[in-house]
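Running co-folding for FE2/S2 (inorganic) cluster.
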Amino acid sequence: MNKYCLSTNGRFFTEVGTDSLTLPPHFTVTFMYTIKFTFEQKGLDPITLENVAPDQSILEVALENNIELHHNCGMVCACSTCHIYLQKGEEFVPELSDREEDFIDRAKNPKLNSRLGCQCVLINGSGELEVCVPDQSLIHGE
Ligand code: FES
């Protein structure tokens, strides 16, 4: 079952939990994600965010929810400080580009599921993602 909300003029209106619905013409449907953040840094509990709208990056979602994730280059894929491990939900973000891969290679402890948070823009859809945030105390910068 897809989870989505209805909105008029881009404002959140209500959450609905069904796939079939007839909408008046002035309503739009936005599919929503659930993202669970876990942290390598000791002492930080996991955070689960629900009703996350698509068309924003995992980095933007993190910052908007006061989750520390560095972003030294200003989100233009020119550093590796927004490095994350995408544990689940890679089908909901664009494929890894060569440029992103180059910068991931410069990150601390890259793994097969490494991504850059600023390059993982949620596509239009709905589902669940799981993101592990590397220890931010080991990263210098913004
Ligand atoms: S903020 Fe620099 S690559 Fe993401």
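Result summary
The chain is about 10% helix and 30% strand.
The longest strand covers residues 33-39.
Job closed.
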